[in-house]
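Module 6 notes. Inverse folding takes a fixed backbone as the condition and produces residue identities as the prediction. Think of it as a translation problem where the source language is geometry and the target language is the twenty amino acids. Below is one complete input and output pair. Work through it position by position during the lab.
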């Protein structure tokens, strides 16, 4: 089986290139041949894999054309990135898949309002390769959109609302993957037959430093508790709530604030207010994107990861996954998948979203916990990372791809269009007995596993509001 894995935001700074590669490798380890497609000419330095290769939209362009496009990118800025480039990568992926007779096109950063026209155009041109897309965010939960108005520009808010509307139409022409049941129910409750839950896997890092080694490398104090807030500084992710929470606390622990500021993000972390106070020397601020090695050092150095997101964040969160990967406790907002993971697996401390007083109490509790408690959390993190590893995620994706191909090959139900007669025999030979397995596979991937269902049921019994969150 071979797929085209389109990542429209590879040119954007941050984690996109790394996540596209690690997810592709997970699929490759499950037996899938993957072509990653993006706009940049090359990917950053990443390990090689025999089943994974990179292709650029710019392949075959002349030097003059590349220069013209680069000039446009610099002139248009984010307009180019979030409009032209996303569209270009999505359309090129559909064309490339048809040309190379790929079995599936997979989009890792689905932008619904731009993808729907591309799907319609591809269908009109007879390009009928099955399409699967991952929803990496929920395009502003209706409740949280009200809060974000004060921190986001009008263009971003409009983009969010258009995507929210457009996303609901995607299952008419493709299969959708969500990171958890809350997002699936919120966006796609009317088309559950073509929406699936595959949790993002926990990555096995290439290196884990001891806490002492990491702190020595970063110049952090060796004998104090350290909490880490990692990621871009944004209103939605609640960095200001953490700064408010420590206002009345003694500086009995250190905090690392690591991530990009400025541009579409907050102008700073808000730590300046603590100059000339006891906290001044205990707040360690890094206001930029960091390398993968630096990320590993900060997660290895800390004792706990703070996840103070405002209400409306339905996904698992990359910082939750990083914390589990490095065996660190969580100080997390109790909402949706973040709350479920933390409570169910005993990963740390929870507080009500946007409740500064509750966050403050969680920080006090964190500072007073003994080493044995952190060791117990680390052990539970290791067990969870093994259970929901990248390899297991890759296998689930392969099962989904097999089911989608089989449905496309012969069953033609649920709005899926059959493949053209020209390549019927070739596809039938490649997929073997998939038609016979399709219904069982679709039932398996279309809903959570029995274990996941039990977890969700238990969660709703112990915390009724968590179930209500699906409908808010």
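Target side of the pair, the amino acids:
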């Amino acid at each position: 089986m071979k797929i085209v894995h389109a990542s429209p935001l590879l040119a954007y700074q941050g984690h996109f290139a790394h996540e596209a590669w690690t997810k592709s490798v997970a699929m490759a380890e499950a037996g899938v041949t993957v072509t990653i497609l993006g706009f940049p000419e090359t990917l950053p330095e990443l390990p090689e894999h025999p089943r994974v290769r990179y292709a650029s939209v710019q392949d075959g362009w002349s030097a003059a054309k590349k220069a013209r496009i680069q000039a446009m990118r610099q002139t248009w800025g984010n307009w180019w990135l979030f409009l032209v480039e996303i569209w270009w990568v999505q359309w090129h992926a559909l064309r490339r898949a048809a040309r190379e007779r790929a079995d599936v096109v997979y989009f890792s950063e689905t932008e619904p309002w731009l993808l729907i026209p591309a799907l319609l155009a591809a269908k009109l041109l007879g390009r009928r390769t099955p399409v699967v897309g991952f929803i990496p965010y929920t395009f502003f939960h209706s409740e949280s959109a009200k809060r974000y108005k004060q921190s986001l520009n009008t263009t971003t808010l409009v983009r969010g609302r258009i995507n929210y509307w457009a996303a609901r139409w995607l299952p008419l022409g493709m299969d959708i993957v969500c990171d958890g049941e809350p997002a699936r129910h919120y966006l796609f409750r009317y088309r559950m037959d073509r929406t699936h839950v595959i949790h993002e896997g926990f990555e096995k890092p290439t290196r884990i430093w001891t806490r002492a080694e990491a702190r020595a490398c970063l110049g952090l104090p060796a004998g104090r508790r350290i909490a880490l807030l990692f990621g871009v500084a944004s209103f939605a992710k609640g960095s200001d709530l953490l700064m408010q929470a420590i206002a009345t606390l003694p500086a009995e622990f250190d905090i690392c604030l690591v991530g990009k500021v400025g541009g579409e993000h907050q102008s700073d972390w808000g730590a300046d207010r603590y100059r000339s106070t006891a906290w001044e020397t205990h707040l360690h601020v890094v206001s930029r994107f960091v390398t993968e090695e630096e990320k590993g050092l900060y997660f290895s150095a800390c004792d706990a990861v703070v996840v103070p997101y405002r209400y409306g964040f339905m996904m698992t969160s990359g910082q939750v996954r990083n914390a589990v990967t490095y065996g660190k406790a969580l100080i997390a907002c109790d909402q949706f998948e973040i709350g479920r993971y933390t409570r169910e697996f005993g990963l740390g401390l929870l507080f009500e979203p946007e409740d500064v007083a509750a966050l403050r109490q969680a920080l006090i509790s964190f500072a007073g916990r003994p080493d044995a408690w952190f060791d117990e959390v680390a052990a539970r993190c290791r067990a969870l990372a093994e259970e929901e590893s990248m390899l297991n995620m890759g296998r689930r994706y392969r099962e989904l791809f097999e089911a989608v191909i089989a449905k496309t090959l012969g069953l033609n139900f649920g709005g899926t269009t059959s493949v053209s007669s020209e390549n019927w025999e070739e596809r039938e030979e490649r997929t073997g007995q998939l038609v016979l397995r399709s219904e069982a596979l679709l039932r398996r991937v279309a809903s959570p596993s029995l274990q996941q269902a039990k977890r969700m049921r238990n969660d709703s019994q112990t915390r009724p509001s968590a179930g209500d969150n699906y409908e808010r």
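Reference fact for the lab report: The two ends are 40 Å apart (CA to CA).
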